[in-house]
Amino acid sequence: MPSLAESYHARANDLLAAAWTTNAPVIAHLAPVIGASIARGGVVHTFGSGHSELISREIIGRAGGLVCVTGIIDPTGGFIENLPGYGTKLVERYDRQYQLLPGEVAIVISNSGKNGSPIDVALYAKQKGLTVVALTCLAMSQVTPSQHASGKRLFEVADRVLDNGGVPGDAIVEVADGTMAGPTSTLIGCSVLNWLMLAVVDWLKAAGHPLPLLRSQNLPGAIEHNRALGKKYAGRLSRQLA
Q1: How many domains does the chain fold into?
Q2: Whole-angstrom Cα distance, residue 91 to residue 100?
Q3: pTM for the complete prediction?
């Protein structure tokens, strides 16, 4: 009988492969949308509440990643994400400081897709003229009632939806008597975002645009390189470059 780790490895890799197939057409559509925005000088905004914030941070200030990605950070860690209107206040404050501009793209991440703050952020960004991309678990969200005043779930308000292909409850390995372990939303969610960013880099490269890619600060000259890239986005990035 396989160990729990072996079972997780096999099942998670199956889900990862399925996520690639499912999301490839959406990524192909989004790459030129995001690429064109970046070519115009725009930035990509991300938001994830609670554990989903980890996924949103995957592509912010990352070695090998695009410099022009910034994050809406919830200082409460998502503990009050269902307080009515809290997400709106959060994104309004972010907008005043970093600016959400028409034609840019906001990626909003929520595994369940039902909680208030991610939906607040998505609705606000759409109102400001941004393209809103949801990264969610459709299998869970489609059967889970919304906690938002609108009654809608994240996938129902986004312009495009990326599906992490997970299961309701996130965990995929049964330990005993229905007790589950081994979540996949972070593993697959981060992979989907990296696929998307690389597709954007492909588009920028093919269109002859500069590639504003960060280098690991552990490499010679990288800090200077990264600072030079960041100057173009002064005042617009929530994570300051070292």
Answers
A1: 1
A2: 9
A3: 0.96
